[in-house]
Give the backbone structure.
Amino acid sequence: MRIVLVGPPGAGKGTQAAYLAENLSIPHISTGDLFRANISQGTPLGLQAKEFMDSGELVPDEVTIGMAKDRLEQPDAASGSLLDGFPRNLSQAKALDEILEEKGIALDAVLDLEVPEEEVVKRIAGRRTCRNNSAHTFHVEYKPAKAEGVCDECGGELYQREDDSEETVRKRLEVYHEQTEPIIDYYKSQGLVVTISALGKVVEVTQRAMEALRQKAA
Ligand code: AP5
């Protein structure tokens, strides 16, 4: 399956993507994680991305689309992928259509995670992320690490992402409403969107998502 996951910052895209990708045996491709890996390795791409991410703006399309295309061309993505955080505006959505068309393939579904803004704020305020791997995330209340400040999965140090400050989250939400939400209508016109509530326990949301994807594929 080829799926795009969409939802506001803190909706639980990364959390759900890890479980869904495992259940569906497809790679989880997160442009945010790819940027953060580049930042921690100090690559030119990471340096370029950092200033945009820290201010809550989108990284320019020239950088993002090339990076996503390279990742989609890796062998593990040949038979499917779960895209988390890409596309994030209409021009990225159109670029993705072209990338897939070149390969003679198409998206199967766009899973839209709905969460009220007050819940998003709570989720982001309590999130702790692993310095070694930003796909390893915890929450001080909802998913505490076994030992405070230490990643359960790899022992890495947990920290609060620079872009998780209240001011930057406000900016990221604004960018989401202005630039990312329009892609939901774009994909609705192609009959691809399934919307689910992302409220409730993580496992309940995963079950809801799997059921919605099953119905979409039927
Ligand atoms: P990115 O890393 O993609 O961030 P985001 O979309 O803002 O999403 P988040 O990672 O903040 O949240 P999430 O929905 O994954 O939630 P999570 O599962 O962690 O992008 C960051 C930046 O990179 C962007 O601002 C931009 O600058 C740049 N960028 C990335 N892609 C780009 C693109 N395509 N174009 C241009 N720029 C791009 O969950 C949040 C917390 O809630 C966690 O603590 C978790 O434990 C907890 N939680 C999750 N589910 C539940 C639940 N059901 N109940 C209780 N708690 C829960």
